[in-house]
Amino acid sequence: MGGMAIPGKDGPVPPEPGKVAAEFYLSSGENLLEASRKRILALVFLRHFGCTFTRQILRHLENVQEPAQAHGAELVLVHMLKDGGEIRYLAGHDDVARIADPRCELYRAFGLGRGGLMELFGPRVWWLGAVSIFKGCGVGHLAGDGLQMPGAFLFQDGKIIASQRAKSASDLPDIPQLFEGLPEPS
């Protein structure tokens, strides 16, 4: 995975997600760690809001939210703007739980680094980007770290129970796949 740092070798070891989660709050005011003790959280870490792939996720948010809810989980969007700055990008979905992480501390704790040339601009990214733009998702101004990679996680009791760390900027979250192999909710 070119462009990704190896924890402990290329830099500091990222902190445990559960420890960092105690420092972050959902848009409802609930502490992330405490929320993960009450229910499974489907955390979707977004790229910057000008990214056509982020815009694609937000445009079809129900495709991410419905499978999470069907498995008894709450969808939580993690973004890089200051708290409240994301509202203008949500287009009526401001009821979805969100976490502001402008310094990308939570991104790092969940093992999401910055992408390199191929992860951000490889042929597959260009192709899927063109398709996304053609479908009307467009491209906006840079609103966040343009190099930050996305990912999706199931988070429960302060621990990652399933993960999808993107291999390219064009990788979209597959919530049903995250739940494969986990017991059905009671």
Molecular structure report:
The protein is 30% helix and 16% strand. It is an alpha/beta fold and 186 residues long. A 5-stranded mixed β-sheet has the order 3-2-1-4-5. Strand 4 and strand 5 (159-165) form a beta hairpin. The N and C termini lie far apart (38 Å).
Number of alpha- plus pi-helical segments: 8
Largest sheet: 5 strands, mixed
As for the number of domains, it is 1
- CATH topology tier name: Glutaredoxin
- Beta-strand content bin: 15-25%
Strands of the widest sheet, in order across it, are 3-2-1-4-5
Helicity level? 25-40%
Class inferred from helices and paired strands: alpha/beta
Give start-end ranges of low-pLDDT stretches. 1-10
The CATH superfamily name is Glutaredoxin
The SSE string, one letter per element, is HHEHHEEHHHEEH
Mean pLDDT: 80
Q: From the alpha carbons, calculate the radius of gyration and give it in angstroms.
A: 16 Å
CATH class: Alpha Beta
Terminal residue distance: 38 Å
Principal-axes geometry comes out as globular
Which architecture would the CATH scheme give at its second level?
3-Layer(aba) Sandwich
Total strands: 5
Describe the SSE topology.
Layout: H1 17-21, H2 32-38, E1 40-45, H3 52-59, H4 62-70, E2 73-79, E3 97-100, H5 105-109, H6 117-121, H7 123-134, E4 151-156, E5 159-165, H8 175-179
Parallel strand pairs: 1-2, 2-3
Antiparallel strand pairs: 1-4, 4-5
Provide the descriptors you would attach to this structure in a database record.
alpha/beta, disordered N terminus, five-stranded mixed beta sheet, 8 helices, Glutaredoxin, 30% helix, 186 residues
